[in-house]
């Protein structure tokens, strides 16, 4: 079982904004991640029952034949580079290893690499619950 955090309910920064996504759970995804405007999507209030290293699934779309990349920052830690292979229609998953703290004071930011390249369109995060 997993808790779901929708990207369209998260906070956008830089040039990030809603994009239509018929295959996404809410019909919308967070688009324009990265790029020259440094688009970001920040998921706050992520809950964990315990302090633990856990696997978070990042559901996304990417129409590019070549992989896109983005950094994920968990609770202000070091960026983790994630790869997002081509995925059209239904969202695919990339995996993030996240060190979560007990409680609901966890934050995950998906951002560009800082080089002007584009990340994927992010649909949602799926965080395991015990």
TrEMBL record:
Residue span, CBM6 domain: 3-128
SUPFAM superfamilies cross-referenced by the UniProt entry: Galactose-binding domain-like (SSF49785)
Highest taxon, organism lineage: Eukaryota
Alphabetized InterPro entries for the sequence: CBM6 (IPR005084), Galactose-bd-like_sf (IPR008979)
Name this protein carries in UniProt: CBM6 domain-containing protein
Coiled coil start-end: none
MF GO annotations: carbohydrate binding
